[in-house]
Design brief:
By secondary structure, the chain is mainly β. It has two helices and ten strands, in the order βββββββααβββ. A five-stranded mixed beta sheet has the order 1-2-5-8-9, with no helix packed on it. The longest helix has 7 residues.
Length: about 140
């Protein structure tokens, strides 16, 4: 799969964002000083992430062996396969889901949940906002 590269610079650091040719995704990176006045999206296809917790490169892709989510604030992990089964996502749809990933750590199963690890909290200084508009209504 050919991946196009987006490189975004914020302050003095640079993070590489990789995605397959997928015109449905908009990526915004911004700085915050505390969360006052910042509205964190509750919409199904727009999510905000703690930018400084990203360890590798962000990639929009389909699932791969070894993918996992952090499912709670204590850092417990769940294999992506198990999450998809528990959520009763039909087998034929699982391979078609778009994922926002930081290496094998799934940040967001697009249209479903985000990983607890990347959630914005009171310690967040920079936010990565991702909006998916692949023909879906943002609820």
């Amino acid at each position: 799969m050919q991946a196009s590269r987006l490189t975004s610079e914020v302050g003095s650091s640079e993070t590489e964002l990789r995605r397959p040719t997928c015109p449905f995704v908009q990526v915004i990176i911004g700085s915050v000083h505390g969360l006052r006045g910042i509205e964190i999206s509750k919409k199904k296809y727009t999510k905000c992430f703690d930018y400084d917790k990203i360890k590798h490169h962000v990639q929009i892709r389909r699932r791969q062996d070894g993918d996992y989510l952090t499912i709670d604030a204590e850092g417990h992990r769940q294999k992506l396969k198990n999450y998809l089964v528990n959520e009763k996502i039909p087998r034929q749809e699982r391979g078609q889901l778009w994922l926002l990933a930081d290496g094998s750590h799934i940040m967001w199963v697009i249209g479903h949940r985000i990983s607890d690890y990347y959630k914005v909290d009171t310690h967040t200084r920079r936010i990565l906002k991702v909006q998916y508009s692949g023909g879906k209504e943002d609820e």
